[in-house]
Amino acid sequence: MSTRITVVGTGYVGLVTAIGLADFGNTVIACDIDKSIIDKLSKGIPTIFEHDLEEYLKRNIESGRLMFSSQIDFSIKNADVVFVGVGTPDKPDGSADLSQIEAVVDAVAHNMNGHKIIAVKSTVPVGTNRWIENRLKTETGSTNFTVVSNPEFLREGRAMQDFFHPDRVVIGCEDESAKEVLKEIYRPLYLIQTPFVWCNFETAELIKYASNAFLATKISFINQMANLAEALGADIHQVAKTMGMDGRISPKFLHPGPGFGGSCFPKDTKAVAAMGKKHNVQMTIVEEVIRANEQQKIRVVERLKTILGSMKAKNVAVLGVAFKAETDDVRESPAIAVVEKLLEEGASVRVHDPKALDNFKKLFADRIEYCERIMDTLDEADCLLVMTEWNSYRSIDLNEAGNQMRGKTIFDARNVLDPESARKNGFEYFGTGR
Ligand code: UDX
Q: Which member of 81, 302, 361, 378 lies 3.0 to 4.6 Å from 117 by CB, making a disulfide possible if both were Cys?
C-alpha cells in the first residue's frame, strides 16, 4: 500500500507542498481548519496567487491524488506521514509564536492510530523538533512515531518551480526506516539528482535560519553600499555586477532596493536575534541587518522629503505594493512602512499593483486611493515612486506619464526605469545607488 500523506496548513508552504507531493504520485490530503479555504481549494480555486499553481492544483484533484479536508482528526487518522506547514508568526519580542504548531502536535497525539511520521516544514526555532518529539512521547505515552525536520526554501512567485527543482532537500532525521519512507516520497527529486542533506534536527533547523539570515544580510549589505554609492557618485549596479564576478560572492541577491520584506526574511532574522539572546550568543550582525532594513524603508521618505522640500499636500503615486514582483503578498512589504510615513508627513497617496491591491486595501482601507490603471495612479501626481519591480513598470510610457502628472519627479526605489529616458522626458530621476 502506498504511503498516505496529510499536509496540515494550506498557506504558501503547505499548499505548494501538498500539490507538489501529489504531483509526484503520492496520495495527499491537504487539511486546514479554515473551511472557506478548503471549500475554494476543493473546487480547484487557488487561494494564493502563484505561477502554475492553478494548473497543478486542478490536475492533481482530477487525478484523484489530492483531496482537501477541514477535519483535522480525520486527516491525521488517515495518514502515515503528516507534513506540518502551519504558520509560525513572530511575537512582539521577535521570537516565533508556536501555538499553531502546538495545536497540530496535540491533534497528532490524539489521533495516533498507528505509526506516524511527523515532518515539520514550518520554520521553527532550533530545538522545536526535539520539543515536538518529547511532547508526543509525553502525550501518547509511546514512541510509535518519528519526527522529521524538513525545512522549506520556496520563493514566493516561483514556489511550484522551486518545489520541483530545489537546490537541495534538507532532512533532519534520526531514524533509518523514516529515511526510507521520505526517500520514496521524494523519489522524483532523487531521480533528478537533487542533493539531499541528512542531518540531526538542530542542524536542519539552523540551516534554514542561517540561509535566510545570510540572504537578508546580502541585501542589507548591498542596500547600504548603494546608499554610499549615491553619496560618492558611483553606480551600484556596476559595483554589484562586478562583485558578483567573484565566484565566492555570486551576483545573486545583490539588488538594492527599499528594503526586504515578505513572510520569511523579516521574521526569520528576528528569530535568529531572539535565539542568540536566549542562548547568550552575540548575533550582532543579524541585529544590524534588521536595523539597516528598517532604516532603508524610512530612507525612501527621507529622500523624497529632501527632493520635494516637504511632503505636505503632495500627491504621491506609488507603483507596486507587493513585497516583491510576481506575488500578491504584502506581508512586511516595504511599501507599508513607506505609505504609512507618507501619510504621516501629510501626503496624499494613490497606489497601483497588478496583483496586490486587494491585500493592501485590507491594511489601508480608505486612507489612500487604489488604481487599476497605472496612468490613473499618476493623475496630478507630484512624484512617481516605484516600490516593486513589476516588469510592467519597465515599459511605462514616460511621455504620457509626464503629461498626466503635475510634478516631474521620479523616485525609482527598485531601479526598474531607464534614467536616461526619464531625463529625456523632462523628469528629475532618482534611483537607489545610481
Ligand atoms: C525567501 C527565501 O528566498 C526562501 O528561500 C525562503 O524559504 C523564504 O524567504 P521570498 O520571501 O519568497 O523567499 O522572497 P525573496 O525572493 O527571497 O525576496 C525576499 C525579499 O528580499 C523581497 O522583499 C525582495 O524584494 C528582497 N530582495 C531580494 C532584495 O531587495 N534584493 C535582492 O537582491 C533580493
A: 81
Domain that holds residue 359: 214-431
Count the helix, strand and coil residues of the chain and give each as a percent rounded to the nearest 5.
Answer: 50, 15, 40
> Distance from the CA of 350 to the center of ligand 1, in angstroms?
25
Rounded distance, CA 56 to CA 24, Å?
Answer: 11
- Residue 295 Cα to ligand 1 midpoint, Å, equals 18
Q: Is 383 a catalytic residue?
A: no
Other residues' Cβ atoms within 10 Å of the Cβ of residue 197: 12
C-beta neighbour count of 141 within 10 angstroms: 10
**Whether residue 256 sits in one domain with residue 113:** no
Residue identifier of the C-alpha nearest atom 6 of ligand 1: 153
pTM of the predicted model as reported, rounded to 2 decimal places: 0.95
- Residue 148 β-bridge partners: 119
* Per-residue pLDDT tens over the stretch 53-71: 999 999 999 999 999 999 9
Same domain for 70 and 188? Answer: yes
State whether 231 and 286 are in the same domain.
Answer: yes
What would the mean pLDDT of 368-396 be, rounded to a whole number? 98
Rg over alpha carbons for the chain, rounded to the nearest Å, is: 23
Residue identified by cell 503528516 is 82
- From the list 31, 264, 371, 383, the catalytic residue is 264
- Per residue in 26-52, pLDDT tens? 999 999 999 999 999 999 999 999 999
Claim to verify: residue 226 and residue 153 sit in the same structural domain: no
Protein residue with least CA distance to atom 9, ligand 1:
264
If asked whether residues 145 and 169 sit together in one domain, one would say yes
Alpha carbon of 216 to ligand 1 centroid (Å): 8
CATH of residue 82's domain is 3.40.50.720
Per the structure, the count of domains in the chain is 2
Cα–ligand 1 centroid distance for 2 (angstroms): 36
pLDDT digits (tens, 9 = 90+) for 124-141: 999 999 999 999 999 999
At 396 the three-state DSSP class reads coil
Tell me whether residue 205 is in a domain. no
Mutate to test the pocket of ligand 1, among 49, 154, 155 (most ligand atoms within 8 A of CB): 155
Residues with CB under 6 A from ligand 1: 152-156, 212, 215, 219, 253-255, 257, 260-262, 264-265, 323-324
Distance of CA 261 to the CA centre of its chain: 7
- Ligand 1 atom closest to Cα of 261? 23
